Amino acid sequence: MKKITLGTLLLLFSICCSWSQQEKGIIGYNNWLQSWTDFSPGKQKYDEPTQILTGAITEDLTLNKSDIYLLLGDVFVTDSTTLTIEPGTLILGDFKSKGSLTISKNSKIVAIGEPTDPIVFTSNRPLRKPGDWGGIFILGDAPTNKIANEGTLDYGLSPDDLSNLKYGGDDSLSDSGILRHVRIEYAGKRTKKHGYLSGLTLAAVGEQTVLDNVMVSYCSGNSFNVIGGNVIAEKLVSYKSNRNDYAFNEGTQTSLSNSLAIRSPYVSSSEGFRAMYISSYSDKEDTDFEKPSTHVFATNVTLINVSKNLESDINVGLVKEAIYITNTASLELNKSVISGFNPAVYLDEKIQINNDNLQRIKFERTYFNNCKGNIFTKYNPNNEDLESWYGSRAFDNVYSKGSDTETFIDLNLTKNPDFRLRINKIVATTDTDTDDD
């Protein structure tokens, strides 16, 4: 009979402790960013497109890995059509026509990549830059807080039928398809009248839509723009967006888990854009205030500003807050990490600090690291009430001043950086010597 030695027990104990201590921020036994992500997308070389997508797609269509596709102008999937994309397929957004892809209401996209064979949307320019092409729009049938529960995309897109820009309805469970192991790079074109497009816009998307392992990098607009709907998403990555990494609006009820935003003071705009921007409306006159306001439940989220000299970058105004919450919107942030911001959170000045508002804006078991201040009301330098409230033992928040190398496992790896929270090293013997009875 084999005996389990003390060394083996210590090893098992250390593994269990490692997992339990690594509960904040993005989590996983392994680094789930490996293989399918790309933190240096500009180095990739691609062949010329072999197929062109343009106008309206009105019949079910499958994009094959063996071809390279070009989005020429505004492409719409309409008439309850399903667009299926094979693993490893490359889709190029045309620079000259500012190509985009819109999945209209009642249609679907089924883009299922593999960890070792992701689906890639990127620019067709040899020297790719943010804003080279439009982005992806998915329009669903879930509720919003707009009057009549229906909105129209207003980004200058040009469909054959304006009804293909409509979003919103009564089906919170609506299914717009699947995005899995997908990268969206260099999107976010600028329009004179409508501003910047986003990498991925989710308008009135319902709960049955599957969104996981999606990376948006080097976008001139927001990386992820969530407008209304009942969105459930996990393992999203925003990398060096010029504007907001995650924007939530129009009464969305969003659940976001195990997701990441990496901002850079040398790429991301410092002009009022954040890792998370949470609002309930853009147009007050078009909002039904009897309907639910925006609510975001985020757990195991890591928001990090990667800086070569954080103190200097803060002093010259390159670093802003990580999260901004407007009046009537709400957030529950749990088991997350906010690192390297100025400050961590701003509440809109219209939010009164009272029990009702503090009950709908929660920060629990969250690791605030290396931020110049934690939670403030905008334009109010006195945050003693907020510090006292969120600093109580009931919320179990942690405050630290550790460097990036001390806080995260390895941010310096170019190919496969690891943004999981570093834990204290546990030394355990690997002695597996056994004795027979």
How does this structure look, described?
Residues 1-20 form the signal peptide. With 437 residues, the protein is mainly β. The chain has 2 domains: 1-31 and 244-437, no CATH class; 36-190 and 209-224, no CATH class. The chain contains 5 helices and 32 strands. It has a 26-stranded parallel β-sheet that branches. A two-stranded antiparallel ribbon has the order 10-11. It has a two-stranded antiparallel sheet with strand order 13-14. Strand 13 (190-191) and strand 14 form a beta hairpin. The chain starts with 5 loop residues before the first helix and ends in a 16-residue tail after the last strand. Mean pLDDT is 90; it is low at 1-21 and 425-437.
